[in-house]
Amino acid sequence: MMSSLHVVEGGYSAVNGNWTQFGGNLSFVCLAISLWALFSIEFQRRSFRQEKVAFGIIAGGASIGSILLAVEFHPGIYIDLRFSPLALAGMFGGPIAAAFAAALAMAFRFVVGGTAMVDGIITMAIATGIGLAGHFWTRKRSPELKDVALLSLALGVALVLSMALLPTLVNAHVLAGVGFPLTALNCLATVLGGFVLLKTQQWELERSILVTAFSQSPDYLYVKDRNSRFITVNENMTRLFRFRTTAEMIGLSDFNLMSRPLAEELYYLEQQVIDTGVPLIDSTEHIEGRFLLASKVPLRDKQGRVIGLAGVTRDVTERTALERELRESKNLLSHAMAGMSDGIAMYDSKGFILFCNEQYRNAFPLSGEARVVGAHISDILRRVVETGERPGIPDDVDGWIKAATASLHSNKDEEVQLHNGDWRSIRTRLAEDGTAMAVVSDITATKQAEIALRLSAEQLKSLAETDGLTGMVNRRAFDEAFARETAGSARRNTPFSLLMVDIDRFKAYNDTYGHPAGDQCLRVVSKCLRQSVSRPADIVARYGGEEFVVFLPDTSAKGAMIVAEQFARRLAQENIAHSGSEFGRVTASIGISCATGAVLRTNPNRLLTEADAALYDAKTQGRNRILAHSPNGERHAMKEAG
Q: Which of 169, 337, 342, 510 has its CA at 20 to 30 Å from residue 551's CA atom?
């Protein structure tokens, strides 16, 4: 009984010793992986191949160290954690790292020798292969913690199978003796080492992004110490100052790069940032013929002490040139706008004023104060209504404002008259972006000249159609009216009458009393004729000399006789003395002609012929009488005119 207890206690003590040695082995492997994480940043500066070779050597060294710390389970059989670094080298380092790590570890195991050398090398190859499988599994993405867990699980399964199948390990009963701690600690070492490598990759990626962003930034980036010496710069800084590498600028200051006055100015500003801890934002610098905009902020350590400054400088040379050109163009445009006589306003697509010059406001004296940037066209039009600036606005004010607002964004030319009689020309043109530009011109003088010209034309036309002495229609206008009115009567099939009047013995009157008296006599006769007709359609014309003609649309021969008799009575009442006349006063002979449809359609001039013939007969039969002829040759009874 005591012997059995001693064996159990001895076995328990051996197992505890194995766990303790395995723990030290685990610590060594984790330490080796951590050392790689520490120094991997240095290897990043080298080539990709060099980095992978270095990682393979570190992993192989960790595997060798694990073998050196191995537990000798059976003569020639060593139990350790050599498999974890090999699997990690395969997954995180790829074929290059895996090859170096496996070669070093296998060579060392071969040198050590022992009963289970072949089985150990085979298991090491399997662990390396599992790591490479993990590498190719994650080659299109970055490994994650779940991938490390799967790698650890696969390694554990491989170790269990090796201990269960490889003959030397089976004969030594390794699986039953130390299978669990061997498998568990290799898996644990894989998870811990993988976690460290994942974090290392993450930090390296973040650092790489920061370094790349710093190096390739289009701005000028730099960090300086408390003495304003460069600690690091990006590539743009080296190009600005014509250095080949960034390392050549490390330790230099502005005094090594530019003129002393400028360097002293920059040094003073930077020392103020360091001394006060207040950032310098958007400070203008002029370096190497370039305009730069610099911002500099203090850098502090964990205790809050300023240990230097970081600066970012932007090249604004082109922007400065563009801004200068823009200012010059704007000034030129402002001068042009101020000096031009026309008013200009620009409205956006919603009807708000974007721009207007003073001339635009002055063009509308009563609503000018409402025409400002930001005002809406509807508010401006309402002000026009309130002030009565434009006459003739309809009673529906809201409808007018709505219609005028809607028509703003269209190409149009309009002329408007203001309350004081002035005229404005408004030319509106629509741009592609929906804005509308209105150009306002004062056309008062032009409009007044146009009106005067039109009046003059009307007066000239009146003079051309009016007899200057009597003020009645002349022969030319009579001919036009005769053709028009006879055609109208022919269409309507209504009668049309014509009176031809001649002053008796007018030549003798001129010879006796003189031409001025003769002109006055003509005026009196024309007055009597005008008073004898009452309808707007009746026309009285001076046919020539002392001869007059009257045509009466829609008037029968009887109606024409009444008009002729009225004229004779009025002339008699005037009682103009005429010593050269057998009647002792001015008298007139009158010939009448009347026609209807057929004659008017075929030969309206027969009216003139018959009226003239009737007048001739009246003259030859004693004067001072009225005689009517018809176009068909009939003669009407003769009547004395007075």
A: 510
